[in-house]
Amino acid sequence: MGLHVCLYVPNIIDYIRALLVLFAWSVYSHPALFLPVYVLSVLLDGLDGWAARRLKQTSRFGAWLDVVVDNFGRGMIWSMLYKWGWMVASVEWCVFVCNHSTRGAQWKSSFTESPVWVQAVMANGFRTPLGVLTIAGLHGLPLWLYGIQHGFLSLLFHVPHWLQIFCLLLLAAGRLLCLAVEMWCILAHIKYLTRDEDEEKRD
């Protein structure tokens, strides 16, 4: 793999996504600008994977970069939403390190030995009912909280209060499920590291 991989179309899309996140951060206090820019960066997350498969430009660098930009964007919005938002971002970065250091670019499809409930989330690249709920919570909860915090769900989209609360609870459930999977990944990685260390000592 040479440096030409950096110029693959899906990777260029991810560079654009990163720039969109930076711009969204700069206009965070202006929902009319922040929302379309940040949502566009999220939507492009689906386009880069499609482009990689369509153009046969999949790569380890691209798989790594995709998750880096995802975490970059969500970390930004969580940190801006709440003082404790950095903790959510820290967990996501920790899971990124755990998965990519042991499973590499194929981390999404390498959970065959995980518990049934983890497999139910991860199966078919999250294309399962639990997987969809998890991804909705992962990406949608911070955006929904931003909408509630800035009032545009009521003022701009006229979303009834009961529906705001219902969607909030649904997205929170998805994010909690995601957190459970994240904790399993971290614990599995710790077991992997300590098991290898014990084996090296015995040798």
Helical element count?
8
Helix content: over 70%
Number of strands: 0
General form: globular
What share of the residues does DSSP label as strand, in percent? under 5%
Question: Segments where pLDDT lies below 50 for 5+ residues?
Answer: none
Please tell me the overall pLDDT. Answer: 90
Structural category:
mainly alpha
- Radius of gyration, CA atoms, in whole angstroms: 18 Å
String of helices and strands: HHHHHHHH
Head-to-tail CA distance between termini: 35 Å
Q: What can be said about the biggest beta sheet?
A: none
Can you tell me about this structure?
The protein is mainly α. 79% of the residues lie in helices and 0% in strands. The chain contains 8 helices and no strands. The protein has helices at residues 9-26, 31-54, 60-81, 85-102, 116-126, 129-150, 152-155, 161-202. The longest helix has 42 residues, at 161-202. The mean pLDDT is 90.
Name its key features:
8 helices; 203 residues; 0% strand; mainly alpha
Task: Map the helices and strands.
Elements: H1 9-26, H2 31-54, H3 60-81, H4 85-102, H5 116-126, H6 129-150, H7 152-155, H8 161-202
Helix pairs in contact: 1-2, 1-3, 2-3, 3-4, 3-6, 4-8, 5-6, 6-8
